[in-house]
Amino acid sequence: MGFLGILEDKHLLHVPATVVLDERQAQENDPGRGEGLKHGKGRHAHIVLVPQPSDDPNDPLNFSTTKKLIMMSIVGFGAILYAATIAPLLSPGLVVIAMEFKRPIGDITVISGYLLLVVGATGPFVSACSRKWGKRPMYLISSLFGLVGTIIGSCANDYDTLLTARIVQGFSISAFESLIISMIGDLYFVHERGYFMAMMQFILGAASNFSAIICGPITANLGWKYLFHIFIPFAAVECILLFFFVPETQYIRARRYELDEISEDGVPASSSEKDETKHLEHVESPRPSIPPAKTFWQQTAVFTGTYSDDNLLQLLVAPFAVCLNVAVLWIVIVSGLSVAFLVAQSYVMAQIFSAPPYLLTASGVGYLSMGPFIGGLLGAIFMGLVSDPLIGWASRRNRGVYEPEFRLLCMFPGLLMGIGLMVFGHLCEQQVSYYATATAHGIDLFGILCVAIAASAYGIDAYRDMSSEIFIIGMVFKNFVFYGFSYFVNDWTADAGPAQVFYVMGGIGFAMVVSTPPLFFWGKRYRSWWHRNNLLEKLHIKTHAEF
């Protein structure tokens, strides 16, 4: 039995995704283990780099720290614009827009529902095209859709034009909501991912609340059209930055470098056999020549080649097929539903707080998002500070060996999600001070981010070969849930009251968090079983260019 009760596998000597992370500790227990591998620098000199970077200067893992930060900052800025801001852009002004167009508030809510439907429907195509031709074209095309949709929205004078604008904007979201997570795996090693996972999940989850704080006063003081007018220059700048400073991160790396994707079957060879094998490998596999680093202008190419030999139909099916993996299905449901509860809250904010006894204006409703924004910020800071040090601590106590299940230890603060949702519903039902409701909203978002970050980090570490498909299908799932909520959550709240609505959501949130221990204890054995009985391979579906 491994550290903290993780059950060891009896079939594979090395289970994929189980890797030596702390060489000092590993050497004490197994001398020679980890020798000849590349390590981190400075205070991370004892950390084995996973995956191992190649010698190619064009390998994204070999990009400088500054270049990686610039790339993540630009794509993160795009995520703020498209994944975090566009969907809730009109939320504080739903009542204002409904009055101007003389439509029920439900009709205006459904406009955003159609946007989310487009996001969910385009997800598989974004996944397939990014696997085939890389992530860079998807980012560029998505940002152009966002710019065009925003320009249309700035000219909208009727319901149908506004609907058209929102549908066009919907095509801008998928890439920034899903590929950005797998991009972390393209650029960063296992011991570096926790901070960036926390930052990106904060953008995808909590940053939308800050947009409501800004959008509310703009709607109240300038009118809702100015939301689009002000958005246009930011969208244009993002297009330019993406083109010049975000090169392709998709990379076909030799299989031997993927320490977290390879396995050893059967009984270990004797030392003499190992030495002989190493000698044969050395003789028969000459070192490939190292290509020169691409120039700045070469890196600005929109299309840089083909990264998969699969046909598009296979690649379109792949995001759905990965759900045959039970652990992946758990990740999709847990991360998707937790964020869906946050969106459900945003749908009913104007409905609850624009009515008596609160009677808040659009700007007042927007200011209420300060509570969840602070809660989400604290959650992201907490996870950013705790996630990577925690897996380092657990790995040292596991003889230097890292198990992806260590990421799930951060799921348990997610219990605050259920508590916050239930308290929020109760306080709204009792018409308590909106300061109290905003505090409860912040508590549930703290828990939601803990759940989303822990589940996503586990997915990218345990099943990195499927990471793009995992986050694409997760995005599809949650956006279809968002769309469904847009049809009934306002009516449900009006008929049953906010207490019942958020008691149900809080109960589901509790259930998702307490479903974690089975995956924590049996996850390693399941990874071994999946490797030996990969249902995707049986269906001739590939999820990684190197398979």
UniProtKB/TrEMBL annotation:
Residues 266-290 are annotated as: Disordered. It is a multi-pass membrane protein. It comes from the Eukaryota. The keyword Thylakoid does not apply. One of its GO terms (cellular component) is plasma membrane. PANTHER family: MAJOR FACILITATOR SUPERFAMILY (PTHR23502), TRANSPORTER, PUTATIVE (AFU_ORTHOLOGUE AFUA_6G06680)-RELATED (PTHR23502:SF29). This is Mfs transporter protein.
